[in-house]
Amino acid sequence: MAQQVDLAVVGGGVAGLAAALEAVQGQAGRPSPWRVALLEASPQVGGKVLTVWEQGYLLEGGPDSFVTSKPGVLEMARRLGLEAELLPQGSSGSFIWSRGRLHPLPPGLLNLVPTRLLPVVTSRLFSWRGKLRMALDAVIPPRWGEADESLEAFVVRRLGREALERLAEPLVAGIHAGDPATMSVRASFPRFVELEQAYGGLVRAAFVLRRQNRRRRRPRPEGEPGPRRTFFMSFRGGLGQLVQAMADTLPPGTVRVGTRVERVDREADGYRLLLAGGDSLTARGVILATPAAEAARLLRPLDPAAADLVASVPQVSTATITLAFRRDAFPRPLQGSGFLVPAVEGRKIMGATYLSRKWPRPQPEEDVELIRCFVGGVQQPRLVEADDEDLVAAAREELRAMLGVTAPPLFARVFRWPQGMHQYTVGHLERMDRLEAALGRLPRLALAGAPYRGVGLPACIESGLQAARQVLAELDREAGRPLPSPSTADR
Ligand SMILES: Cc1cc2nc3c(=O)[nH]c(=O)nc-3n(C[C@H](O)[C@H](O)[C@H](O)COP(=O)(O)OP(=O)(O)OC[C@H]3O[C@@H](n4cnc5c(N)ncnc54)[C@H](O)[C@@H]3O)c2cc1C
């Protein structure tokens, strides 16, 4: 007989783990009444979060950090008692490879929104023509209305093509590995649209915000800490520490790794999940927390229209290549936390992070630098298919050209993420609204994770929590109880 649970969560990335945690931890200090199963196809939980040790050095195969401006990860760390393990970013400051040299990314360009104008004016990253065109933003009228547009259309309209090619494109490639010509500005950079509508343009917004910040600043009494500047954080034990703690907090037996869900069918009182190997599981509620293509495949027999909307979220492949070098292999000292490479430069890497500078963790030998290069994305998807040796050779060639390092690496490690990055293309938010309406036809079924309303770790965690709350509220309502109480299903 098929095993029964109240809630089956499919996918054990951060979104699925957050959903399962929310479901088992209960509310208002009450123990949860729900039986939960988290089904994960691969041998370990974490999904894209993959922390590994190589010769005693901590490497991140996927994400290496999270933004602190969104609460998802910080609140989860608090919930798990991991606050003391949070690791603020060490060296900061990014560079952009342009016309044969590294240029500092003008400070104040937090998430592409200029909050300080002088560094942009004095930057050698842009030509005078480009700077003058950017300044025209102050007089270009805003575009009103709700219609979405591409990031490229927005940036070129407001700041000109040079700002797109030298700044917006590499920053976007670094976060989404995406193409600004197809990416939705409303879904990926909603702040841009907000600033344009509130202040009439980005340059005007920069003036007003700067003035407001100055007014708010008051002299601090001696000893009082200054404003929190950390923008990115990680954990001492890498991001793997977070997902491990999430999994360890779930009751024994909840997480089932190596368990791929082949199919989900509707039954009278819920859903039947067919597992690889022939077993099945029945669940009253289901959360699909897999990448888009897999969620669409599982949804298709249940609601083809909803499946089409999920399948409309494109995914692109990327790879990271981490190389370890002795510090003295670099002819010039490394500065900042890494650099980005605009597509117009025609190079093989999209950027590089100086991992051991960005995240000051103890390591077996202090004079070793870990450099992590990104390849692939929309610009060069085929590169990800190259074998490890060729990828390492490509990364070395680029680091030789950009940082002058010619020595062979002490070791190198490649991580591939086929179809690993979701792209929010023009019209994404409107399609997500339609998807949510369509899901109303499927009782106690929700979606969570990177394909929908935020690809970053905080947003994915938040989406998992939200999906669990939604399905549990339906279960509660059906059980006729406003507060959680033990399930009537046999246990
Ligand atoms: C190289 C790289 C770097 C990144 N850097 C950052 C960063 O620095 N900061 C940041 O915030 N974000 C970053 N991201 C994005 C972020 O890592 C992801 O968006 C996020 O981890 C996705 O989490 P998720 O739970 O939605 O999905 P995933 O992590 O993709 O997890 C989905 C899980 O579902 C499982 N699964 C799939 N199909 C089935 C099935 N049929 N049955 C059972 N299980 C199934 C998969 O095995 C997987 O474990 C990066 C992504 C990549 C690829």
| Integer-rounded radius of gyration | 24 Å
Please give the number of β-strands: 21
Give the rounded overall mean pLDDT. 90
Query: Biggest β-sheet: count, sense, barrel?
Result: 7 strands, mixed
Q: In CATH, what is the homologous superfamily of the largest domain?
A: FAD/NAD(P)-binding domain
Which runs of at least 5 residues are low in confidence (pLDDT < 50)?
223-230, 484-491
| CATH architectural grouping of the largest domain | 3-Layer(bba) Sandwich
Please report the number of helical segments: 16
Work out the oligomeric state of the chains in this entry: single chain
Euclidean distance between termini CA atoms: 14 Å
Overall tally of structural domains? 3
CATH C-level class of the largest domain is: Alpha Beta
Beta-strand fraction estimate:
15-25%
In the CATH scheme, what's the topology name of the largest domain? FAD/NAD(P)-binding domain
Question: What is the general shape?
Answer: globular
**Ligand names:** flavin-adenine dinucleotide
**SS content category:** alpha+beta
Query: Considering DSSP H and I runs of 4 or more, what fraction of the residues is helical?
Result: 25-40%
